[in-house]
Write a structure and sequence with these properties.
Layout (H helix, E strand, L loop, with lengths): L2 H36 L3 H10 L2 H16 L2 H24 L5 H24 L1 H4 L5 H30 L3 H19 L4
Helix pairs in contact: 1-2, 1-5, 1-7, 1-8, 2-5, 3-5, 4-5, 4-8
């Protein structure tokens, strides 16, 4: 089976999911680093990390329900458009030294909740994009791409970017979401 069987819309979905996961992986450790820069209270620093882990537990099933009922392409584009705005506002707040703990907690929660909906929609749209025989290969590529972007590339890059400028990982995260939104809107059937 050749790559062309998966098609243009799969490539757009793959790029969207991988870019989105890379942005998430940049942001997660950067939030903890920023919390540590704002306060020395380990409970508050832990709270910023924990609050980003709660939305998948609370909204995971609900995200799947809505991903099945709403137009998946529009849902993905809208979610990442909103996430781009939230994380861009956070980047500006960090750049002008106005990011407090409450802003970090709210941003972490919102971005994780929206990410749950994006992930549900991105995996639910896959069967509409590739032939049934290509689903295992497409799913494998999608899973591998998001794992590499999240675990091997984004997380280590976050520390380097944060050391260069604390607002940088958040600004790059906003760019990844904006690129994803543009790419999704170019797709014909995603």
């Amino acid at each position: 089976m050749t790559a062309s069987v998966l098609g243009r819309d799969f490539r757009l979905l793959w790029c969207a999911a991988v870019s989105s996961r890379f942005g998430d992986a940049l942001r997660t450790p950067a939030l903890a680093l920023l919390a540590a820069a704002v306060t020395r209270d380990p409970r508050v620093i832990a709270a910023v990390t924990v609050v980003a882990q709660v939305p998948p537990l609370l909204f995971g099933l609900l995200g799947g329900v809505y991903a099945d009922r709403w137009d998946r392409r529009r849902t993905m584009a809208l979610v990442d458009g909103i996430r781009a705005g939230v994380v861009a506002a956070l980047a500006v707040a960090v750049a002008v030294d106005r990011a407090g703990i409450v802003a970090l907690l709210v941003a972490a929660f919102l971005l994780a909740a929206l990410g749950t909906l994006f992930d549900s929609a991105s995996f639910a749209v896959l069967p509409a994009l590739v032939p049934p025989a290509a689903l295992p290969r497409a799913n494998g590529r999608l899973q591998a791409g998001t794992a590499v972007a999240g675990g091997f590339l984004g997380a280590p890059a976050a520390g380097v970017l944060f050391a260069a400028a604390p607002a940088l990982p958040f600004a790059l995260d906003a760019v990844t979401f904006a690129v994803v939104t543009t790419g999704i809107n170019e797709g014909e059937s995603i």
